């Protein structure tokens, strides 16, 4: 916007036509709005003005003749326009000629052109003013916003001049530091110094500010109250156009919360989120420290590796939520059972460790291990589930067993596996021979994997006979594995398969073989009435992995597919699942059973009488049979309690309309008792050992005779 000064030149009339007579002018005058004529001599000398009115009065006179009238003198182009306008007023003329300093013609001004120019200038001025006003308002608004932000921001702001005199602070500054605005202004940031940083710290800060114009970092400051607190500070140097520092602006936020957060993150990184115990990382640090200190002081220490027995089953059968709660309670118990200086850690899953540096001679450690075992052998009540837990503990000692943290951990872990192998709920000191057995187990699982790949698993059939008639009613498929010709007990390799995740593959292979052979037996030994039934064992881990895939039909589909493939009718197939697995409330299990039950498959509850069954659950599932556990049958003749349990099971089964199969019947005496109790079916060495297919054929042939 320019506030322009008007001169006469700005007011010159635009449409001045230089003609010598009005007649001639008229032709052009139609298209123009010229109202005055300038008359020159033929030599170009300026003579004067003729107005349109004069010209119109004397249309046939040439303009030179009309100039007889007194001509007002021309006006110099340096005369201000307002004086020019006054002159026109005084002389009662509407037009004036304009000449330059040398008297040369420049143009004509009219009152109208001056007034128009003046009005335009007025308009321009007003516009300029409006724009200025608008800019000013914007500026005011911006300042208002800046002030509001300055005051409202949660970060403290402090502005000092180049000499570090505080010029400006906001409310947040006062809130954080305790210094009121009035108190702070005029002071230097020295009022905030905590004394926690040395000169080098501040020097580095100033060097950085000079060099880069900014500094950022954590700093300990002191409040007015004297409290020292951590603060996150950001300083910027503000320079003028010449590049000289005029101000420093510091933005500061109380970092106490950040510190707490960092401490929390640090805690999370070194502690187990579920139980709050030190995690593997912190445990290894502590073990390393403990070993170093024991070595320095000529001391000893013991490492106890604790693994819960059957925890995976709890997780699988009752769900992870129950499992997690159990782990938390166990963590608390462990912590309360050891001394304050001992470290209890959770390495993951159901594995815990204890590092103890006190009383680490053999008897001392035994006392600790026994205390831990008895603390854990405990009945837990979690969400209405009564759970009995036991643990196995492996122990290694420094310096006897090893002198590095890694070796001690590995040995304690091995010893724990040895403890489990001997029987659960025990502790075991590391020993080299035990370690060798452990290595054997690892090798065996590799061998089992290979066996599955090469289809080395076979099956044996154990017949089941009707106790009333003595005739065969079905048979039980039992997996067999003889690597290098030496049979391995199914209890061993089935557990191994469950532990190593090979159980699905194994289960599927057994079902393939069993379905094929069962179909062949049905064809070879046709019989009237109820057909023979073929029982197949199902591991709870198989059901779990199907459920875990969120594809509960997966296992059922696979099984039904295999039966169809071998043309085996579903109504002759029976699945055996242990009591604990059946009665679990696990998601997925009842769906699978329902699908299989709907397809016509029978379900038998295996090892019945060993767990604490919930009858209501059994009733909800499509269960057809109960298999009385061998441990109950074994002592039937001598143990009245077992006899009572067996009687109760049989009575209950009848009430539920279920058949009962007694397992492990070895003697006529046992058979007689079971018969009087009303047991329907028996299976055991008394009738036959589990037989491979060829021997089963001869056995069946003999039965038929
Ligand atoms: P189980 O299902 O209770 O099978 C019966 C076990 O008792 C078999 O042991 C059988 O040989 C044994 N037995 C039968 N009659 C007598 C007897 O009169 N006296 C004695 N002392 N024992 C008898 P086995 O074959 O060693 O199998 C052990 C366990 O391994 C089975 O117990 C079963 O739980 C599991 N198992 C076997 N095959 C498979 C399989 O294909 N899949 C799954 N998931 N588990 C299997
Ligand atoms: Ca069984």
From TrEMBL:
Residues 441-704 form the EAL domain. This is PAS domain S-box protein. Residues 142-188 form the PAS domain. Keywords: CBS domain. GO terms for biological process: regulation of DNA-templated transcription. SMART domains: EAL (SM00052), GGDEF (SM00267), PAC (SM00086), PAS (SM00091). Residues 68-125 form the CBS domain. Signal peptide: none annotated. Residues 215-267 form the PAC domain. Residues 299-432 form the GGDEF domain.
